[in-house]
Design goal:
Order of helices and strands: HHHH
Distance between the termini: 13 Å
Radius of gyration: 20 Å
Strand content: under 5%
Shape: elongated
Length: 100
């Protein structure tokens, strides 16, 4: 939020409402956490298959565990994205534009 204060001020000055600013930050947080969750799923499956092939151990990738991990990742993104989104939406446009 701090690095983008001027951008937020410009958006608010041209008519963006608080909900628009908040939604922008929440969507960004959700996308980042979803991409991280997908990367974790892919890496987890690849490492599991690699261990299975090299050590000749049987491995099982549970779809329930994969879905649970992805949902947890998305929840963390929303939880930790809410505070910066709220903070950004409560900025006053004049103060945000004045920020350097």
């Amino acid at each position: 939020v701090t690095e983008r204060t001027r951008e937020i001020g410009i958006r608010m000055a041209i008519g963006a409402r608080r909900i628009h600013i908040m939604l922008q930050f929440l969507v960004e947080a959700m996308l980042l956490s979803a991409m991280g969750g997908l990367a974790g799923i892919v890496l987890g499956i690849l490492i599991s298959k690699l261990i299975s092939a090299l050590a000749e151990w049987p491995t099982l990738v549970s779809p329930v565990a994969v879905a649970g991990g992805f949902i947890f990742s998305a929840a963390v993104g929303v939880f930790f994205g809410y505070y910066p989104a709220r903070k950004a939406s409560l900025l006053h446009p004049i103060d945000a534009l004045r920020y350097e």
